[in-house]
Amino acid sequence: MAAHAELVCIPEDRLAAELPHADALLVWEFGTDALPGAWPERGGPRWVHTASAGVDRLMFPALRDSEAILTNSRGVFEQPIAEYVAGQIIALAKDFAGTYDRQREHVWRHRVTQRVWGTRAVVLGGGPIGRAVVRTLRALGIETDLVGRTRREGDPEVGTVHAFDELDGLLARADWVVCAAPLTEQTQDLFDAATFARMKRGARFVNVGRGPMVVEKDLLAALEEGQLGGAALDVFREEPLPADNPLWDAPNLLVSPHMSADTDTWLDDLAEVFADNFTRWRAGRPLRNVVDKELGYVPVADAPQAAAEEGPR
């Protein structure tokens, strides 16, 4: 890329000085909160790419209202996250945590666990991550419903995509509830005491979306009261999760440090997505993974095959 552009790698404290002169910006450190305060009043990048799937940190007014094209790294994280979800469901069903505890205590205690085949799951998030989760869970014999923004019949990959307003009715039948949706005004604080109360008693909850979608004190109460039979969280309202946060000691809760998508090849994979889009950008071709800044995510075409090469909208 250096043969075609001047590449400048900058820390957060130089953002404000450099951004007015940039044509494009790669947000490699996608957890940064420095961008809103550094965005220039005039000029600035015409294209912003983030090395993440979620773009909620970039949905500040100045960028959202600008003419800059925003793209994300869709295509890198879907299958690893789906594997993480499947792994956590199996771990909860088979009580792996209890097995590890008894091994450390040198205690031989036989017990029965749950079969996942024939159970039912609801996955919130109709994008590529949610679809990968559905494919993987169905391969385990779990009957899985996908919930997106709007209802679609005859989807070539998942069949019926349920509308967001159908979620409450689906929760009551689900053994597993998986949150894989982006953070928007509609999903902020979605999983609260009322939502957990609508779930089947003893259901398990997995969140690979965003931490602010869950009211954590309500989740803690649902676990302590037995309304939830267990949960696995990979994302939290505050990260890193403080050592004194009561979630660390919540019953039947598996905590992981925002790592569900991170594999041994992920940095190379992220670089390849950006490099491909850079080639397209130089040639004036449609970019991949263009975010609809009003929606806050990349729209998914009706056909998954078309979504893979979706250009600007």
TrEMBL record:
Top-rank taxon, per record: Bacteria
Q: Which UniProt keywords apply?
A: NAD, Oxidoreductase
Xref: InterPro entries: D-isomer_2_OHA_DH_cat_dom (IPR006139), D-isomer_DH_NAD-bd (IPR006140), NAD(P)-bd_dom_sf (IPR036291)
| Signal peptide limits | none
UniProt keyword tRNA processing present: no
Q: Which residues form the D-isomer specific 2-hydroxyacid dehydrogenase NAD-binding domain?
A: 87-260
**What are the residue boundaries of the D-isomer specific 2-hydroxyacid dehydrogenase catalytic domain, all occurrences included?**
11-291
Q: One Pfam family, short name please?
A: 2-Hacid_dh
The text of the family note is: Belongs to the D-isomer specific 2-hydroxyacid dehydrogenase family.
Origin organism of this chain?
Answer: Streptomyces endophyticus
What is the name listed in the Swiss-Prot or TrEMBL entry for this protein? D-2-hydroxyacid dehydrogenase
CDD domains per UniProt? 2-Hacid_dh_1
